[in-house]
Amino acid sequence: MNWFRSILLPVEGSAYAQQHDDLFMFIVWLSVFFFLLIAGLLGFFTWRYRRRGPDDITPNISHSFKLEVIWSVIPAIIVIVIFVWGFRGYVRATTSPGDALEIQVIGKKWLWEFEYPDGMRTLNEIHIPVGKPVRFIMSSEDVIHSFYVPSFRVKKDVVPNMYTELWLHPEEEGIHTLFCAEYCGRGHSDMLGSIYVDSEEKFSEWQEMGDERTRNMPLAELGAILYESRGCETCHSIDGSRRDGPSFGGIFGATHQFTDGTSAVVDENYLRQSILEPQAKILTSYEGIMPTFQGLLRDREIQALVEFIKSQQ
Amino acid sequence: MADVIAAPDGVNQHHPPGKNYLNAERGLKSWIFTLDHKRIGVMYLWSVLTAFLLGGLFAMLIRLELLTPQRTIMDADTYNQAFTLHGAIMTFLFIIPAIPASLGNFVLPLMLGAKDVAFPKLNLASYWVYVLGAIFAITAMVTGGVDTGWTFYTPYSTTTGGAVSTMTLAAFILGFSSIFTGVNFIATIHKMRAPGMTWFKMPLFVWGAYATAIIQVLATPILGITLLLLMMERLWEIGIFDPRLGGDPILFQHFFWFYSHPAVYIMILPGMAIMSEVIPVFSKKTIFGYRAIAYSSVAIAFISFLVWGHHMFVSGQSEAAAAIFSFLTFFVSIPSAVKVWNWLATMYRGSIELKAPMLYAIMFLLLFAIGGLTGLFLGALATDVHLHDTYFVVAHFHYVMMGSTTIAFIAGLHHWWPKMFGRTYSETLARVGAVLIFIGLNTTFLSQFVLGTRGMPRRYYNYLDQFQPLHAFSTFGSWILGLGLFIVLGYLLASLRKKYDAGDNPWGGRTLEWQTSSPPITHNFPGTPVVERGPYDYTTAQPQPVKIIPDR
What we know:
The structure holds two protein chains of two kinds.
Chain A: H1 2-8, H2 15-48, H3 65-94, E1 101-108, E2 111-115, E3 121-123, E4 125-129, E5 134-140, E6 145-149, E7 154-158, E8 164-168, E9 174-180, E10 193-198, H4 200-209, H5 219-229, H6 232-235, E11 255-257, E12 263-265, H7 268-276, H8 299-311
Parallel strand pairs in A: 1-5, 4-10
Antiparallel strand pairs in A: 1-2, 2-3, 5-8, 6-7, 6-9, 9-10, 11-12
Helix pairs in contact in A: 2-3, 5-8, 7-8
Chain B: E1 5-6, H1 28-32, H2 37-65, H3 76-112, H4 120-142, H5 156-159, H6 164-191, H7 204-236, H8 249-283, H9 290-303, H10 319-347, H11 356-379, H12 381-387, H13 391-421, H14 427-453, H15 468-495, E2 527-530, E3 547-550
Helix pairs in contact in B: 2-3, 2-4, 2-15, 3-4, 3-6, 3-7, 3-8, 3-13, 4-6, 6-7, 7-8, 7-9, 8-9, 8-10, 8-11, 8-13, 9-10, 10-11, 11-13, 11-14, 13-14, 14-15
């Protein structure tokens, strides 16, 4: 019945996910059994004891102590089994080993920010080595978010003013999607991230030189990827439509009026400043809500985004 | 025994055209100021049905938007408002008052052999407070909208724009309406039972309403104070929930679910209570395990106060708390399972007639089984961590709220419609409607279980392409479901144009409401009924008349 399991559940990214799925499938089969029992009895009684005429007399069966004890005790035993099983899984899922790679996570509307022990920071994208436990220490900068990776069957709310943690132990290389599972406003459903489980060599290569796919990419092309993966598109459209921030469509070379009364022509320096110090110049009719990307983008990535914005004419 | 007369006894005896509660007085004022529990019940009925229609409209818009990823018909902000309003309207304006305040108000005093509820003026106040709350809710809708979700989680709800305070105020006001009904029912059940009606001769609907009323009175004040604190936080930044001000956002979740989990049982207990009436009547057999059902209602009411933390397994509450809440949660499932076995045992060797109310009762049993069994996944800690805040949860509670409570409400509506309005409806159309609703419901929500187990989070405007087939399937289901519900509404409304044709006891029920005319007279009975038999006495083929002592 493995096909049924793989229809119901996403890939199993860890040994824990497999254990979780064993319990899950146990409850599935238990539920199927009891549902068929109830439906079968219902169908059978409805047909077998259908009304034959207005003078039907039915037996006056008020109760049966024996039966009632049986059908209270059996479900009680079953639910205790499920409780203990679920509890043991939970203990395993919440107790992280001491030797884990620690990654700091900040959730904010509407992106994920990661910081590695060596100070490297990334946005909406992390690479982790295969076969090594990883521990995430998480907090939020604004409202409650929730860190959810279905492939590993783990989830934990990311709460302002407090640290929560979650760990996983990836067993195979692969790419997994990270979702925000606690409603956080307009960009909630776009607050996604990618978790790359890399081999040991690929991981250290990435740590030194960045993503191999993008290393030799033309700047504007790289910019297009960053525009999506770094969350720019949540607030900036490219088709001229209005979101929380100004659209990139036709922005280069335009003249911008600012809330402090000054104005400027949009050029490379202005774009660079807006990425690194977004509060310096706020366009009239917009709110200054953009977070700074200082330290979150490599120099080449900033150049790439500027080139990408330039190309949106 | 000259002062004892027999009430009408025939199964289908037609009541002579005369005065009843509907035509005894005419004019708008006679409704606005009525103290008659039946009229208040009818006003509540039309109001909750209007709320259901409005909430349903939002549901259809949500499903239509989710037909495709990205934008289908609305932008993200509108979508967030739509699901918030769907949830808030369905919860506070429809499902909490639906059964107790409309059907309950109408039949509870009749079942007890009473002339009215204990506090008729409080009952009327409850209705108008409900209307006031509804006005505030609609004001919030048109003046800026609300995008917090019906759960109002902080700090999102304390920082977002829109008319959050107005909506919170609406829910605060609606709470009073709910408390008034609860207080009234408790007093009525304690003090106004007919002579001879001991606690264990009360119909089980009354037991269900009693357990519900206890939760309403004990839990609703917690919601009141929580929402008040939320409003103060928004208006004056008092710093109780917002971490920027030194507050604790998780405290809000504890407060909120301390009410809202018991509130789940405010919604489902009356539904179960209707089952305990409909199933014996249409099986023509005494209920199996009367005391077990009665006690299990009270047990559910009690345990419901101890399990709120199961909404917060991944919230950051301590692991020990999560374990305790998980353990206690499983013990709500036992009394619920006991009830299902009791209903099934009632049908065993019965004389089952598949009239519309029974059709819905069977539907209830199937859908409640799915809703209940999928609760096991969410009670168990490990599986809940994966499924929490996904479509699995959405599907689970729709099977319980829509598939069980609302279906029970429709069953009750069909069961007591002839009593309330004195008219019969088309059985053929009722079957068509029931089949469409059953297919529609399962199409809409079964697919959502799979969306959830595969990792689709809830409250998502946009989604990954891999989820689209199941979303589309669910949306098609919502159209079938909507069509079925409109058919039901259609033939029920059409029946109101007919002459009174229902007969006093069309189903051969044994509880007291079937011992008076359809529609009942203003004072319910020509005198005081004296109860000698149990509410489910099917030892004779025909209902036996009850003794009624005329009023002096």
